[in-house]
Design brief:
Belongs to the inorganic phosphate transporter (PiT) (TC 2.A.20) family. Pfam families: PHO4. By secondary structure, the protein is mainly alpha-helical. It folds into two domains: 40-412 and 488-522, no CATH class; 413-483. The chain is 80% helix and 1% strand. It has helices spanning 3-38, 47-67, 70-78, 84-102, 123-147, 153-169, 176-209, 214-241, 250-276, 283-288, 291-326, 337-365, 371-391, 397-433, 437-449, 452-468, 473-483, 490-522; strands at residues 106-108, 332-334. Strands 1-2 form a two-stranded antiparallel sheet.
Amino acid sequence: MKLKYLNQIEQATGPGRMELFRFGTAMLFIVAIMVVSSGMMPDNSNGVLLVAAAVIGGYMALNIGANDVANNVGPAVGSKALTIFWAIIIAAIFESAGAIIAGGDVVSTVKKGIIDPALIGDSDQFIWLMMGALLAASIWLNLATYVGAPVSTTHSIVGGVLGAGIAAGGVGVADWGQLATIASSWVISPVIGGFIAALTLYIIKRTITYQSDKLAAAARMVPFFMAIMGWAFSTYLILKGLKQIIKLDFITAALIGLLIAGVIYLISKILIAKRCTELENDKTSVSSLFTIPLIFSAALLSFAHGANDVANAVGPLAAINDAVFTATITSKAEIPLWVMLIGAVGISLGLALYGPKLIRVVGSEITELNQMRAFCVALAAAVTVIIASQLGLPVSSTHVAVGAVFGVGFLREAIKSNYMTIVEDIRMHHAQNDDGGAVLEQFLLEFEGADFDRKDQMIKTLKQNSMAAGLSKAERKKLRKQHKKQLVRRSAVYKIAAAWVITVPASGILAAIFYFTIKGMMI
């Protein structure tokens, strides 16, 4: 056989070998969990259930890493501030650190209090309920990752607990008021995240990139934006990421964050001023100034995510472990070290093996991100969680981050559409007035290089002359529709929105099925 055919065969089988490697590595992790958990088995009939629950918990952790962590590093990768390799390394380290250092010693056995454990018959039913919920949430996350839809792991486990809880204790076991509040976050989270990200991007454009001397504006404004990010992330980490280590109120956390922001402002002002002397006066250079903050944001978001969302994987497992050993149902359960390690290692491993797909979706397949836009997404994620927590609004970090990406994309789309309409109006005006191509190109060149206020004045003058030349409002509207460019992929919008809406009911139905299956097997 010719060498070129051998090379073609090797290239064709490459993806299959990589998939086999991923699957094999994941299975080794599951086997390791079986070995470790079997050494923790109590001397009763539920010992085997503990091993099975540990395996499912590990499977859940893998899926959290594959799906949810992409929100933290996707924008940095999409903007090319980080390569996907280094993004995975940074996220894995900080996710594990957040889970182990700040994940807490105690976790709520029933996430968000959506069902009343007192209405569950006995500890055996509670164990079956939590196993069904954990398995359902894991499978739903796996399916969502397969189709490339970033979904909320919190909503997945909420749906699982709800479905299995209703199957075990009836409709009355659920707290429907709490459920309604959680459902409201489907709209609240992406809208707030999208609005803050779009507003931040618009302010950056207005104060920096729309100025004629962009570097001077950047030297003045970028340290201010970095200080805001420093305040947001330090406050966010104190309130959310470190709450298991030290519990502070919002005012104290915000004041500490303000001190940190002041230090960041002073340091970045010196560094940015020096950096600006080496750059060209264009948008690309300005965008590159946001690279370092993006790398820090990816690490800090991953730490906070590991501290908070590891409970989605190990919370039900900790509840099962407690019920197996004590034969009681409690609202809080201690997290043994081996359970926490399953969550921390599983999330990191899931990210490394299957995370790149969702990282690409969040980072580049919804809209094109550069460092400046990705900075707005990361800042919006931290600020939204702070605002929501103080207002008592339930938000999903996944919905916030993806909503922020959508917000940036839709703002770009609106700006691009408006800009192209203006340019076409300019061309129409010069064509009707027979000014000639040289005059037109000179006007466009001046318009492109003008700052925001000068552009506004040029547009007003153009509109007056164009109206005198007979360019009607209807013609302008037609031009606007004709030249609108969609910079946000509508297929991604519809797919992700649909996945968000059906997450709770889908995982709930699956959990009810699994609960009855496990109950039938055990009885």
